[in-house]
Amino acid sequence: MDATEHEKIIIIGGGPAGLTAALYAARAELQPLVFTGMTLYGQVSQTDLIENYPGFPEGITGMEIGEQFEKQAVRFGARVLLEPVESVDLLQSPFLVKTYTKTYEAETLILAMGSDHKKLEVPGEAEFAGKGVSYCATCDGFFYRGKDIHVVGGGDSAIEEALFLTRFANSVTIIHRRDALRASPLLERRARGNPKIRFLWDTVVEEIKGQEKVQSLSLRNVKTARQFEVSTDGVFISIGHVPNNALIADQVELDDNGYVRVDWLMRTSVPGVFAAGEIADPYYRQIITSAAMGAAAALQADCYLNEQNP
To answer: How far apart are alpha carbons 191 and 308 in whole angstroms?
Structure first.
């Protein structure tokens, strides 16, 4: 392993939050080093068409907007490495960041590892991702115009997804493992009052089936154990998110759901460590809000460095 390299700022994560942080840090001449991990551009790279990010009235693919983020950051001096971080040590200063090949010291650190959709972990889910299996209604709903689709989940996010999908779909069937929703009363009233929405209670998905794309779901009633199959044009899975906090779970303060706690300046419980994007945002999970948090984190990291080195 090569000798330790010293950096003013290291950013872990190469999605909208991480790359926007890199852009702002680079323009402050901090020469940020970004570790993207092996999933370049984060969850946004899995989105076929983005139509709600300002400046792209005709829409843009997730990969294309990620490339634009990266190109702009690199133009001002950011260094972006497609390499995962194996461990970090926040108990010493400078902080230690280890990859497979090197050890780095960082005066400041921005955590932007994002979150991941909870998976059903059933046969067919991974195989049909992007081919009828989706985790984002606002990303993919348009492609199901006139279709009969299913939503898995019973919380606020699932019901919001289902209501949004009724703008496009012919019908939306909500599959929920219980006999009552966990969503707020207001959302439940809206869902029950929508003529396009149906419910399958006490039901779980056992398998997602199809040929080149999703065609049917194998289901099971958890109370009667009855197994049955329904046809579908697509399934939206909305059973929650999991923050990617494994690197820092025991080193910074987290909320009850595992998200990094930050104040309005993106500061974590460890001085000099900031967090941005979905690792610290259990609510919005939008590209624009992640980018805004990344900008704020970089600006505050620059202030922190100036305070440490007046």
So the answer is: 53
E strands present in the chain: 5-12, 33-35, 79-81, 87-89, 95-98, 103-111, 115-117, 133-134, 148-152, 171-175, 197-200, 203-210, 214-221, 227-231, 234-237, 241-243, 273-275
Is 107 in a helix, a strand, or coil? strand
CA distances from 31 to 10, 21, 28, 83, 100 (A): 9, 11, 8, 18, 22
CB atoms within 10 A of CB 160: 20
Inter-residue contact 17 to 294 (CB < 8 Å): yes
Q: What is the largest CA-CA distance in the chain?
A: 70
Least confident window among 51-55, 192-196, 303-307: 51-55
Distance CA 146, CA 156 (A): 24
Q: How many residues does the chain have?
A: 310
Q: Look up residue 150 and give its two tokens.
A: 């299913």
Query: What is the overall mean pLDDT for the chain?
Result: 94
The rounded distance, in Å, linking the Cα atoms of 289 and 25 is: 18
DSSP assignments along 185-217, one per residue: HHHHHHHHT-TTEEEE-SEEEEEEEESSSEEEE
Residue numbers annotated as active site = 136, 139-140
pLDDT (tens digit, 9 = 90+) per residue, 193-208?
999 999 999 999 999 9
